[in-house]
Design brief:
Layout (H helix, E strand, L loop, with lengths): L1 E5 L10 H13 L4 E7 L14 E5 L2 E6 L7 H13 L4 H11 L4 H10 L5 E5 L4 H6 L7 E4 L12 H7 L3 E4 L2 H10 L7 E2 L8 E4 L3
Parallel strand pairs: 1-2, 1-5, 2-4, 5-6, 6-7, 7-9, 8-9
Antiparallel strand pairs: 3-4
Helix pairs in contact: 2-3
């Protein structure tokens, strides 16, 4: 099986929780399957500045394909925009602008996924929150899995994230409390409880490593 894992940052120097989980999963899956990680050139999540070299690399048995971000984040400006969008009526276009300002904004990654998605059997997206997941899920929802790493925060109630939790073939959770929270916020998603990780259409699963 050929699997693509899509995550906002990747590398042994990257210490974020979802990024570390992605790396652990990629390294374990690579012992049995062909694994590509599709990610950006950023090392930090504050500015999303390109630090890694663009192109393909091999890290601990995993092929890593890095794509350059088109912009960095102005944190002060983004925080002001977030305060406005959380407390005022707004449009979907406003939310997409919020997503762009938040970063990482990496059109080449999504373009690569659109051109090459047919070579992958499964597309696994890490974290619901960022543009690579929101835009990448549009490519082929039927073979997409989202490891949501969701928690209670204002952003999760933006309209754009309803698609993130309704489109994919499967959602994977790290804890039962995360699963219960997502099911409460997105109660209209059809769910079939699964005892293990399986990217079966319209299912959910709780995972542990």
């Amino acid at each position: 099986m050929k699997i693509a894992l899509i995550v906002q940052r990747y590398g042994t120097e990257v210490l974020g929780g979802s990024e570390h989980l992605c790396r652990l999963m990629a390294e374990r899956l690579a012992t049995l399957h062909e694994v590509d990680v599709l990610t950006t050139c950023a090392r930090d999540y504050v500015t999303w500045k390109n630090k890694y070299q663009e192109g393909s690399d091999r890290i601990r048995g995993v092929t890593v394909r890095r794509f350059a971000n088109a912009r960095t984040r102005d944190l002060d400006s983004f925080n002001r925009y977030s305060e406005w969008i959380y407390s005022n009526e707004h449009t979907r276009a406003d939310e997409m602008e919020w997503l762009k300002q938040q970063g990482p904004w990496c059109p080449p990654l999504v373009d690569y996924l659109r051109r090459n998605q047919q070579q992958y059997d499964v597309l696994v997206f890490f974290t619901y929150l960022y543009a690579p997941t929101v835009l990448g899920l549009e490519v082929n929802p039927g073979k997409s899995v989202v490891v949501s790493t969701a928690h209670d925060e204002p952003a999760i109630r933006l309209e754009i994230f309803k698609d993130v939790f309704s489109r994919p073939a499967a959602l994977c959770y790290l804890t039962d409390s995360e699963r219960r929270f997502v099911q409460a916020v997105f109660s209209d998603r059809p769910l079939i409880e699964e005892p293990a990780i399986r990217a079966t259409r319209r299912t959910s699963a709780t995972i542990g490593l």
